[in-house]
Structures are given as C-alpha cells and as structure tokens.
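Sanity check

After download, print the first record. It should look like this:
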Amino acid sequence: CGSGAATPAPAVTGGDTYASATLKVDFENALTVRNQLALGILNLEGTANEITPAQAKSLLPLWQALRGTALSGAAATAEVDALLSQIEETLTPAQLEAIRALRLTQDDLRTWAESQGITVGTGTGAGAGGGMGAGRGLSSEERATRQAENGGSGNSGGLSTALLDAVIAFLEVRL
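Expected structure tokens:
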C-alpha cells in the first residue's frame, strides 16, 4: 500500500489536513474532521451508539492532547493527524457511521454553541483563543490557514476551543 515515502500534505480542507476514511469534509460548510468527531461524540449521547465508559477512558487523554496542541499553536500536522486517527480507532464503525450521517456543518456548531449559552462574538477583543497578536503580522494566506485550523471562519476559533473543552468535560463525566 505505502512505500514509506512522505506524501505532500493535502490542501487545507474545512480546517484541517487530516483525511478520514469515514468522515468527509466535501459538503457545504462542513466542519473539520476534528470538530465532526467532537460534536458527533456529544450528539451520540442518549443513542444506541453513545460513548461507553471504557471508550471515555481511552478518548479523554487523546482529546486533552488535542486541546494542548490547539493551545500551543505549534503542533505538527503529523501529531494532530495521529491523535485524530487514534480517536477514530477508538470509536466503533457504527459510531463513526452515525457521526458521518449527521453531516455536521458550521451551522450545527453555532446551534450547539447557542444551546450551551456560548455567545458567538465578532472575534475581536479579549476572549478564547486569540493569543498573542491574534494574527497580526500574518499574510492573508497564513491568516486564512489559522482561521481554517480554528474551525472555519474567524469567528469560530472560540467555538472550536469551547467544543474541545465540552468534549473533555463530557468524557470526564462518562468515566
């Protein structure tokens, strides 16, 4: 199958370069695979495919590591991809299919945020995920890449962070 040679990273599609065999980002306003996994896991609660305590125990450190990479902003693509792959491997095929069937979009993320009392700001001022400089000094390409890595538009970086925090809190309760 593979020669071991590194293949070029795919173009940033919907916010990350991780290519899932199950979850797709080729539909309008698709969430990144990371955000589909996160919001999907939350949406599985109360269904036949909900996360088991054993899965929560395996998933929690993976999501915490992803949160750490998101905060540092310095994670290598390979590291993030490896974490996402491990998360997918922890889920059952039925769970992944259920998440895929949701076809989660940016609108779904905003609806979830509103249901959690998370306000969607304008992306200006102090707040979640801005960091030092918040993009000042970046080229328009670099800024677009950073926005994509944070979940799409410039407004959703905080939502991506809030979603990561919500999945971690959810998994801690499921243990």
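If your output differs, re-run the checksum step. Summary of this record's structure: The two ends are 37 Å apart (CA to CA).
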